[in-house]
């Protein structure tokens, strides 16, 4: 039986930035494979390159060299438009600062990824949003606004929003970074439950409690995997 094709496959991936002092190498020859259903934590000191790596995997930034396959598609050959389609269809993002729109209700925040999808009716995406809010335990907060919620509740809204498009992978950038220990535990338990139900998780974190509960931990040091 042949080996399954990884959901995410990086080969000799590097990233450099131009600075006044010349080229700055942030990532060097990264090789990484993530299979469907895995939970993977990326750890490392500040400035090690882990957030840049996640941004490239999440199609928010481009690699300088190397190959990147997502869902068996070679990303580096795509146009910007094709890349945006691939990102919207296959990746869900959860950020440290939640990135909710304060003027919109919780339900409308969750609906956002689908509101301009012409293939989904308004009633359908409204029902999908309520389904995701129920999944994260916030169906009773659908008509509340973000500033009426605790930090942990806001992060659960962000997770619901990330899941509404049924992405292949959920990318989390310091998902517990702005939360107290109680809310952090709630978010960790929610993410791991989602993973147990089949969601692929890839996250950058300084929270070793979260990292150690993932199936695999990858450490980045000076732009390389060690």
TrEMBL record:
Keyword vocabulary terms for this entry: ATP-binding, Nucleotide-binding, Transport
Superkingdom field: Bacteria
A Pfam match: ABC_tran
Transmembrane segments: none
CDD domains: ABC_MJ0796_LolCDE_FtsE
Positions of the ABC transporter domain: 8-226
GO cellular component, one term: transmembrane transporter complex
GO function term, MF aspect, one: ATP binding
InterPro entries xref list: AAA+_ATPase, ABC_transporter-like_ATP-bd, ABC_transporter-like_CS, ABC_transpr_LolD-like, MacB-like_ATP-bd, P-loop_NTPase
Matching PANTHER family: ABC TRANSPORTER ABCH.1 (PTHR24220:SF86), IMPORT ATP-BINDING PROTEIN (PTHR24220)
Protein family per UniProt: Belongs to the ABC transporter superfamily. Macrolide exporter (TC 3.A.1.122) family.
Stated name of the protein: Macrolide ABC transporter ATP-binding protein
Organism: Thalassotalea marina
Native organism taxonomy: Bacteria, Pseudomonadati, Pseudomonadota, Gammaproteobacteria, Alteromonadales
């Amino acid at each position: 039986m042949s080996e399954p094709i990884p959901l995410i496959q990086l080969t000799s991936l590097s990233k450099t930035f131009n600075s006044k002092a010349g080229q700055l190498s942030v990532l060097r020859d990264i090789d990484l494979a993530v299979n469907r259903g895995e939970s993977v934590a990326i750890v490392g000191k500040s400035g090690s390159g882990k957030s840049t790596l996640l941004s490239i995997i999440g199609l928010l930034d481009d690699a300088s060299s190397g190959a990147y396959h997502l869902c068996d598609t070679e990303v580096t050959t795509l146009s910007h438009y094709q890349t945006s389609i691939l990102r919207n269809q296959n990746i869900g993002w959860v950020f440290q600062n939640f990135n909710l729109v304060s003027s919109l209700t919780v339900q409308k925040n969750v609906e956002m990824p689908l509101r301009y999808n012409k293939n989904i009716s308004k009633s359908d995406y409204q029902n999908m949003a309520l389904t995701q809010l129920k999944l994260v335990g916030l169906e009773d907060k659908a008509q509340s606004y973000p500033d009426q919620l605790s930090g942990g509740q806001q992060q659960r809204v962000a997770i619901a929003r990330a899941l509404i498009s049924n992405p292949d992978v959920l990318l989390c950038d310091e998902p517990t970074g702005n939360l107290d220990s109680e809310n952090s535990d709630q978010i960790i338990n929610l993410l791991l439950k989602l993973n147990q139900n089949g969601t692929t998780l890839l996250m950058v974190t300084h929270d070793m409690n979260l990292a150690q509960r993932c199936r695999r931990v990858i450490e980045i040091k000076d732009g390389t995997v060690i």
